[in-house]
Each structure stands twice: as structure tokens, then as C-alpha cells.
Amino acid sequence: MGVAPIKMPQLGESVTEGTVDRWLKQEGDYVKRDEPIVEVVTDKVNAEIPSPYEGKLVRISVPEGTTIPIGVEIAVIELAGADAETAVPAAAQAPREPVAAAAAPPDRAEATAPAEPAAPRQRLSPAVRRLAEEHGIDPGRIAGSGQNGRVTRDDVLAFLERGAPEPAPAQEPAEAAPQPAPRPADGEGDQLVRLSAMRRSIAEHMTRSLATSPHAWTMQEIDVTELVRYREAEKEGFRQRHGVALTYLPFVTQVVCDALREFPFLNSSWTDDGILLRKSVHMGFAVAVPDGLIVPVVRDADRLGFTDLTRAINDLVDRARTKRLKPDDVAGGTFTLNNTGATGSVASQPIINQPQAAILTTESILRRPMVIGDGIAIRHMMNMCLSFDHRIIDGMTAGGFLNLIKARLESWNPASIRL
After folding, report:
1. Beta strand 335-338 with 287-289: parallel, antiparallel or unpaired?
2. What is the pTM of this model?
3. Could you tell me if 353 and 336 are in contact, meaning their C-beta atoms sit under 8 angstroms apart?
4. What are phi and psi of 288, to 5 degrees?
5. Do the beta carbons of residue 199 and residue 292 sit within 8 Å?
6. What residues pair up with 294 in beta bridges, in sequence order?
7. What is the DSSP letter of 146?
8. Annotated catalytic, 29?
9. Residue 239 and residue 152 share a domain
10. Contact indicator for 377, 370 with CB cutoff of 8 Å
11. Roughly what angle, to the nearest 10 degrees, separates helices 225-242 and 306-321?
């Protein structure tokens, strides 16, 4: 009977490592080809990894929560069926190297002094290195729980929770990150919930965004009555013709794309050399998933016709919720839309998705009495909230951007659709 290794896959060109977040199968389980076997999280996306073979899972080589380089073995399958016919016999396979061998530098010298739990020269993953740098921590002070004493993200976070962070260098006080509060004493019935790799990634990204960009925000109240009437009249026919749901998002997206062309600084990024104006609009859409939030991107959204845009949005949202996104699906966004109205929200202050300049929310559409001329009428009203990087954008520019969106949504008619 032959066996075959399953390795940490290459989940995108710029991805060099991944974290095993949760095993979906256990040792001894029978696995079919293309059946999801493990959830892997990178700094860009979380995804369910399908088994490339059919057979029995005989060994899990990497425990949950471990970060390893691309190409390192994570499990071993005892092959069955057609896969077994071309398999290398188990006895003929070379012995498996430990996971830590790929993480250790090849020129690591033998210690001539008593070994520290985590030597300063040891190799750290980019996520661990970044987290340590943000908190001014010397990794050499942390006892690593990984193989060969390698320091993991859990080790850094545990070190911080104990309230023993290394102070930031005295010459750079402005860049010192705020230290987390010590963990409060446990009370009766309290429960400590393990942080998933996605939740940790979200926490790090949100904290870094607030520390990076001076956030400001503004809001506009928009009458979308005509848009609501059109969508209600057309949604069933649209689904029958095109096989996808007709939501408000593609209507808003086309209007926002047009506004970004007229206000290019909203579609930009701050750099040390200047403000980088983006030529194309790669629109990110914040999607809630069971363990967090993810922002897949429709590339060149400003160039897509309405039907193609609607299909692209629906496809990304569906794959985000079923963990079938690839890292390229969440890379390169230049602006983000978030439909917080789906949760019943009427006003919110979103956090910018770095390195973008701004993020816009669409809030709940509510029927409210409004003054129209000298009378009062019931209208469908929606708030839109814009958070922006105040280094790049001032209030006048942000207001002009929202005013343009407001004007075009309030004067919306079927001829406004860009096919």
C-alpha cells in the first residue's frame, strides 16, 4: 500500500507561509479526492484545502495553530483506488523531515553556551516578526513553544498578556504601540475562547489601521425611493434571466465607481514618497463570515457592465461564505464598500482597509416621513457613512464625493444603468 504527503499549498504568488487553523478530518478518517481536509489561514485569506488523493488519513503532521512555510508536509494519506496504483510504496519513501527543519536556518551554529528558549537569531515568520516589532518586543526574551524553540504568534500574545512587553526604543517614542491591558482575573463561569487565526489577523489589521491613518468620517442621508421601486419591480425577472439575486449593491457600486473617477484621491494610497493615485477601481466588498470578516475584491469594477458586475459580486460573496476564496481574490483592493445595513445599522464608523484611503458603508433603507416641497411624503431613506484617511483627504473633498453619490442616487432612473 502506498502513501503520499499533503503539503502546505501555494495560496497566492506573494504568500510564503500558512497557519493550520482547523483540521476537518482526523487520523484514521477515510478521505475522498477533493474533499476538504483542513482549514488554512494566510495573511490574506482563509481557505478549506481539498485532499488531492483518496484514501485514509494516517498522519497529521502539523497541529492546529502552527504556522509553517509553503511546501512543508502537513499530513500523510494512505492511498486507495486509482491513486494507489501509481503510489510509491510506503517502505520506499524517504523518512519525513521534522516540520521545524524547514523553519531553521541552514547555517545555524551549534550553541557553545547554555541554550536560551528562543535565540535572537532564530527565524521568525513575517506575522510573528511584525507583531513583535509593533509591540517593541525582543523575541529572544520569549520562550518559544514551537519545535526547536521557535517563537509562534501565540507565544508573543501570551507574553503580552502577562504584561511583560519590551519597551520601544527610546529614540522612537512616537512609534511605540500602546500596550494591551493585563488579562483580568477569571470569574466564576468565565470561559476563555481560543482565538482563530482569522480573528487574530483581523485584530492585528484593525489595530494597525487605526495606528496608521488618522481617521475622520462623515455621513449623508439619501433618498433612494426610485431605486427601491425599480429593484422591487425587477428582482424576480432579473433572477430568472440571469440566475443571480438582484441586490442594491451593484447599483450603488456603479455610482461609487463613477464618483471615484471624479474624486481620484478617494481611490488612492498614502506612501512616504507621495499619494499614489490608482488608475483602476478594484472594489472590495466586506463580507461577514462565521468567524470574522473578509473583503474579496472585484477587479476593474469600473469597467464592468451591470450584469457582469452583479454576477461578480454574487460569486465572490458566495465563495467567501463557503471558504473557497483564493489569496488573489482578496488582493489589490483600492476602495471598500460595506453593507452594514444588512445588520439593521443606520449609522456606523468603519475602519479603513489599509492601504486604502477610504471606506464607505450603506446603511439600512427605512421608510420615513420627509418634507417634499411644502408637503410631507413617505420616502425610502438610507444613510451612507464614509471613513477617510485625513492625511490624504480633507472634509471638503469627502463631502463633495458623498454629495455626488447622493445626487446620482436620488436622481437615479433605469437609464443610469451602465450595461
Report:
1. unpaired
2. 0.68
3. yes
4. -80, 130
5. yes
6. 287
7. S
8. no
9. no
10. yes
11. 80
CA atoms within 13 A on the CB side of 162: 13
Q: Is 335 helix (H, G, I), strand (E, B) or coil?
A: strand
- With residues binned 3-state (H G I as helix, E B as strand, rest as coil), the percentages for the chain, rounded to 5, are 35, 25, 40
Local structure of residue 267 (DSSP, 8 states) = G
Select which of 205, 215, 242, 390 is catalytic.
390
Q: How far apart, in Å, are the Cα atoms of 209 and each of 7, 84, 314?
A: 33, 50, 28
- Domain span at residue 99 reads 3-103
CB 388, CB 398: distance < 8 Å: yes
Fill in the amino acid letter for 127.
A
Write down how long the chain is: 419
Same domain, 56 and 203: no
Per residue of the chain (419 residues), give pLDDT as tens.
Answer: 689 999 988 776 556 788 888 899 999 999 999 898 998 887 667 788 889 999 999 999 999 888 888 889 999 999 987 666 655 554 444 444 444 433 433 343 344 344 444 334 455 665 677 677 767 777 777 877 765 677 877 777 777 766 654 444 444 444 445 565 566 777 788 888 877 777 877 888 889 899 999 999 999 999 999 999 999 999 999 999 999 999 999 999 999 999 999 999 999 999 999 999 999 999 999 998 877 888 999 999 999 999 999 999 999 999 988 888 887 888 899 999 999 999 999 999 999 999 999 999 999 999 999 999 999 999 999 999 999 999 999 999 999 999 999 999 999 999 988 88
Query: Mapping DSSP to helix (H, G, I), strand (E, B) and coil, where does residue 85 land?
Result: helix
Determine, yes or no, domain membership for 405: yes
Domains of the chain: total: 3
Between the alpha carbon of residue 293 and those of residues 44, 172, 285, the distances in Å are: 12, 33, 10
Q: Is residue 14 situated within a structural domain?
A: yes
Look up the CATH number of the domain holding residue 219.
Answer: 3.30.559.10
Residues 380 and 309 in one domain: yes
Pair (283, 383) in one structural domain: yes
**End-to-end C-alpha distance for the chain, whole angstroms:** 57
Helices (H) and strands (E) in the chain, counts: 9, 18
Cis omega (within 30 of 0) on the bond before 355?
Answer: yes
Coil, strand or helix: which one is 135?
Answer: coil
For the question of residue 394 being annotated catalytic, the response is: yes
Cell 427601491, residue? 228
